[in-house]
Specification:
The protein has 140 residues and is an all-alpha fold. It has helices at 4-8, 11-28, 35-48, 52-60, 73-88, 95-107, 112-127, 132-139.
């Protein structure tokens, strides 16, 4: 149902909250959210313009924030790259994290084939410390 404020928020605000919620779910999937993940989540929340109150609400009530995929292909790939970056941040990738990234890729409108092709490329570039912008440019 949500709050009255959620009812009147813009589509972009709602999409940003859904996106952030997906990142929180990725961070939580291994049963804990470590400091590196918290730092990344904090940076992303700031970039998305989310307040600390909104972040707390999303973390406490994740079921109220569905994923709203962006319209442009570039934004969809950018989100996929960010999902891959999120699972890499603590230095250990669980199979459950990879499955969730794949599921989110599908929700972003990607085919299983494109996910299978792009994921290892993006993963290698993220692990090599290549910036999101460069990775995005390489895969587009």
């Amino acid at each position: 149902m949500g709050t009255i404020a959620q009812f009147f928020e813009s589509g972009e605000q709602s999409a940003n909250k859904g996106y952030f919620n997906n990142l929180v779910m990725l961070a939580r999937i291994d049963g804990k959210v470590d400091n590196d993940e918290i730092n990344l989540l904090t940076r992303i929340a700031t970039r998305l313009g989310l307040t600390s109150k909104q972040v707390k609400e999303i973390i406490e009530h994740p079921d109220q924030y569905p994923m709203v995929p962006p319209v442009s292909l570039e934004e969809r790939y950018e989100r996929f790259i960010q999902f891959v970056k999120m699972i890499c941040v603590n230095g250990h990738i669980e199979p459950s994290e990879e499955r969730l990234v794949s599921k989110y890729g599908t929700a972003l409108g990607m085919t299983e084939e494109s996910i299978e092709k792009m994921y290892p490329i993006i993963l290698a570039k993220v692990k090599a410390g290549i910036s999101r912008d460069v990775i995005l440019e390489d895969i587009l």
